[in-house]
Design brief:
Layout lengths: L2 H29 L1 H18 L3 H12 L3 H25 L14 H10 L5 H10 L1 E7 L8 H17 L6 H19 L11 H35 L10 E5 L13 H29 L7 H6 L6 H24 L15 H17 L3 H4 L2 H12 L5 E7 H14 L10 H13 L13 H15 L5 E7 L4 H13 L7 E6 L2 H5 L1 H9 L2 H7 L2 E7 L1 H7 L1 H22 L2 E7 L11 H6 L9 E7 L1 H7 L2 H20 L7 H22 L5 H8 L2 H4 L22 H10 L10 H10 L3 H10 L1 H16 L2 H11 L5 H22 L9 H30 L5 H18 L4
Family: Belongs to the PEPCase type 1 family.
Catalytic activity: oxaloacetate + phosphate = phosphoenolpyruvate + hydrogencarbonate
Cofactor: Mg(2+)
Length: 882
């Protein structure tokens, strides 16, 4: 560790120590000196054990296994909350006034434009790109945030206290009050149950997403755009248009019904109403504040005429808006109570223009009358929020599995005596669908009574048809593979009377689907009717989670890269613009990792100013949970998309492509050789990880499996990743990759690999992500889980997996020519090390509790709750659930 890194790390340690000390005092007050001493003793022993002290490890294990039932929950809670506070301290450190340049960017907006405008690029091209950016961040609830919303709010308040205490001008009394508030917050956190009593509903998840906007993004969006505008004006003399919004937000919370029977058309309607209600509430608050500010009398002719020479023309307009917003809130309250109120829409904010046009009138009047300084205050902030959030807050995507749509058509064709649609070949399906899409008569007879599952799909399409275009985003089809999968949805929407041309988006998820994506889209875009429907814009979603679960991370990444290249070519030939939608998770095994690096590693031409990306679960809080953090994240996304558009990465050399193809083919063989072909793999997985127990944790509304009686193939990517991160083997994020890299080195391609790592962003990102997961992996801990939980006859598989892990680590170190992993990112490496002495005891306790719950017919409530707390604590320490 360099001296500079050590200094930076000392600053973080200071805050971690400060919060930890207060937590210790809280525990001491609640449970006494003896309990605190035991916690501290185990922490010290865990740290010594990390340094190879076997005696300390044995002593720690003895203490953990001897914990009485009544101490299990508080002990797990102690280490869990320390890890949450460590996360808060690190999060705060990146936005601290004392933040070191190695850790964060003091002004990410300035860096963004500096990188763009200090090159040979024409400034006009940079500004044009900025004005036309279309970055859509899609908030999703899976994996859902493991922390309860009430705790998240308390964590944010802790950050506020830390920020306040950085002020060197605080008096002794003010500092004392701030510390008291910090102690109160940590006491509240300690005495709050971390585990939800019940699994959240889809509506609960949607409300959680809205709270992120209300507490952070509502402020961050105008802050970001103001900083961005200031930099543009400073460097180019121009200003951004009022309505520009490089980044906007959509959501899957309450719209994603793929494998989730709890997301119904009724739920989706409620979520749409709640989204709109939240927007109306926040705009009302802004309008009330603006009423206090715009007290001036002078106005331009248009405003003067509209307000009939009022002495307070601005306030007259704002009072009307205030009334309309209040009426809108009352109307939506009634709907949320299950009523169906009749109302005059002219008395509500019904369309975006109902709010936008009056505010633009006020802005133009102020500007015309020489009061631009006033216009560019709160009024401009509201206009920019409108550009980003509209009046619906979040555009809601609908997602459903392809088979559910085909089942509707099949049931209908059987009813009509036309045969079984599901038994037709692809050409017959397309011919039928196109005939019905271009025909005049309705297909669905009035007296048809479909089965419950089919009726629910029809109800969802009817719901879509009734919504304003701006309330909804895309209709995403999971497990899409054929043109008929898209045409089926279009026919169902037509039959429902949908007049808004909703984007219907195929999601290519498995390895085979990714490899067939270009052929599918070519066939679709060769259909004249369909190409006309697209109106020159085609959206395609690339799946990361299921492709990685299907083929391993290395083969999946290459398949995703090649699919994007081919889709770019297909759309270019068809003369339609391509919008790629990246279905990433938070973890490496689900396509996660630093967003900036991920975007810059995409194939040249695949971004082109447009991108959609999922932001999932706890990553939403880590990136957008605080206004300053959110501004940084917005700047990083904007920067990356501009850079990928204006300064795209180089086309990979043929030698690189050939090498990568060989690596992909070999990695999928290594991966599937274990996951699919090793007969002991499934029993080993279920025994060595808490996969079964995870189903009992009330994490999200979605079931863990698509099919209740299915095996690994039906297991969702989230519990698949989550389970392996709990026993610290991190297997899905590396299996197959290191072995294939070693195969390439054995073929004499090591120098070629080094060239690829140095010159090809795609490959460099893959190696960087591997380094990160190898650093987080703990084979000795995984072996301990095995020794406690797995039958001896299965131990041979654990030994093989740990050998594969070490082989991969050696292969990467040989490639990078480094002596340790992540040597180029010391901060990230030290961040992992900081948490280990606190995660390790939770892991050891978890194995003991897993053994107890599997031994006992009815384990005690304390044992079950403590187990859930260890799962939550390890997730907090690893900083991802999956």
């Amino acid at each position: 560790m360099t001296e500079q890194t050590a200094d930076m790390y000392a600053s973080l340690r200071s805050n971690v120590g400060h919060l930890g000390q207060i937590l210790g005092e809280t525990m001491q007050n609640h449970l006494g000196d003896a309990f605190l001493e035991k916690v501290e003793q185990i922490r010290i022993l865990a740290k010594k054990s990390r340094q190879g002290d076997e005696a300390s490890r044995d002593q720690m294990l003895a203490l953990l296994t001897a914990l009485p039932d009544e101490e299990l929950v508080p002990f797990a809670k102690a280490f869990n909350q320390f890890l949450n506070l460590a996360n808060i301290a690190e999060q705060f450190h990146t936005i601290s006034r004392n933040c070191d340049e190695l850790v964060c960017v003091p002004d990410p907006v300035e860096q963004l434009l500096g990188r763009m405008l200090d090159t040979d690029l024409d400034k006009k091209d940079v500004i044009a790109c900025l004005k036309n950016l279309d970055i859509d961040l899609v908030l999703t609830a899976h994996p859902t945030e493991i922390s309860r919303r009430t705790l998240i709010q308390k964590y944010a308040a802790v950050v506020d206290c830390l920020t306040e205490q950085e002020n060197s001008q605080l008096t002794e009394r003010e500092r004392s009050q701030s510390t008291l508030r910090l102690r109160q917050l940590i006491a509240q956190i300690w005495h709050t149950n971390e585990i939800r009593n019940e699994r959240p509903t889809p509506v609960d998840e949607a409300r959680w997403g809205l709270s992120t906007i209300e507490t952070s993004l509502w402020q961050a969006i105008p802050d970001f755009l103001r900083q961005l505008n200031d930099q543009v004006e400073q460097k180019t003399g121009q200003q951004l248009p009022i309505g520009v919004s490089p980044v906007r937000f959509s959501s899957w919370m309450g719209g994603d019904r793929d494998g989730n029977p709890f997301v119904t058309s009724t739920v989706t309607q409620e979520v749409l109403d709640r989204n709109r209600h939240a927007a109306a509430r926040l705009y009302l608050k802004d309008i009330v504040a603006l009423l206090g500010e715009l007290s001036m009398e002078q106005a331009n002719e248009e405003l003067t005429a509209l307000t009939d020479n009022s002495k307070e023309p601005y306030r007259e307009v704002l009072r009307k808006l205030r009334c309309q917003l209040r009426n809108t809130i009352d109307y939506l309250n009634a709907r949320l109570e299950g009523k169906h109120p009749d109302t005059d829409t002219s008395e509500l904010i019904w369309h975006k223009d109902d709010l936008l046009k009056p505010l633009e009138l006020l802005y133009n009047s102020l500007t015309d009358c020489g009061m631009k300084l006033i216009a560019n205050g709160l009024l401009l902030d509201i206009l920019r929020r409108l550009a980003c959030f509209g009046i619906h807050m979040l555009r809601l995507d609908i997602r459903q599995d392809a088979s559910r749509h085909s089942d509707v058509i099949a049931e209908l064709t059987r009813y009509l005596g036309m045969g079984d649609y599901n038994h037709w070949d692809e050409s017959e399906k397309q011919a039928f669908l196109l005939r019905e899409l271009t025909g005049k008569r309705p297909l669905i007879p009035a007296n048809w009574k479909p089965t419950d599952d089919v009726a629910e799909v029809v109800r969802t399409c009817n719901l879509v048809a009734k919504q304003p275009a701006n309330a909804l985003g895309s209709y995403v089809i999971s497990m899409a593979s054929k043109p008929s999968d898209v045409l089926t949805v279009l026919l169902l929407l037509k039959e429902a009377g949908c007049t808004n041309p909703m984007r219907v988006v195929p999601l290519f998820e498995t390895l085979a689907d990714l490899e067939g994506a270009a052929a599918c889209m070519t066939a679709l875009l060769n259909i004249d009717w369909y190409r006309g429907y697209t109106k020159g814009m085609q959206e395609v979603m690339i799946g990361y989670s299921d492709s990685a679960k299907d083929a391993g991370v290395m083969a999946a990444a290459w398949a995703q890269y090649r699919a994007q290249e081919q889709l770019v070519a297909v759309c270019k030939k068809a003369e339609v613009k391509l919008m790629l939608f990246h279905g990433r998770g938070g973890s490496i095994g689900r396509g996660g990792g630093p967003a900036h690096k991920a975007i810059l590693s995409q194939p040249p031409g695949s971004v082109d100013g447009r991108i959609r990306v999922t932001e999932q679960g706890e990553m939403i809080r880590f990136k957008f949970g605080l206004p300053k953090l959110a501004v940084q994240s917005l700047a990083l996304y904007t920067s990356a998309v501009m850079e990928a558009t204006l300064l795209p990465p180089p086309e990979p050399k043929k030698a690189w492509r050939d090498c990568m193809q060989r690596i992909a083919e070999e990695s999928v063989q290594h991966y599937r050789g274990i996951v699919r072909e090793e007969p002991d793999f499934v029993p080993y997985f279920r025994a060595a990880t808490p996969e079964v127990e995870l189903g009992k944790l009330p994490l999200g509304s979605r079931p863990a499996k698509r099919k209740v009686d299915g095996g690994i193939e039906s297991l969702r990517a989230i519990p698949w990743i989550f389970a392996w991160s709990q026993n610290r083997l991190m297997l899905p994020a590396w299996l197959g990759a290191g072995e294939a890299l070693q195969d390439a080195a054995d073929r004499g391609e090591l120098e070629l690999l080094r060239e690829m790592e140095a010159q090809w962003p795609f490959f460099e990102t893959r190696i960087s992500m591997l380094e990160m997961v190898y650093t987080k992996a703990e084979p000795n801990l995984a072996k301990y889980y095995e020794s406690c939980l797995v039958k001896p006859e299965l131990h041979h598989l654990g030994e093989k997996l740990r050998q594969r892990l070490q082989l991969g680590i050696d292969a990467v170190l040989s490639l990078t020519q480094a002596t340790e992993l992540m040597s180029h990112t010391p901060w990230n490496r030290e961040s992992v090390k900081l948490r280990n002495p606190y995660i390790d005891p939770l892991n050891f306790l978890q194995t003991e509790l897993l053994a107890r719950t599997r031994r006992e017919v009815e384990p005690s409530a304390d044992v079950q709750l403590a187990l859930m707390l260890t799962i939550a604590g390890v997730a907090a320490g690893m900083r991802n659930t999956g």
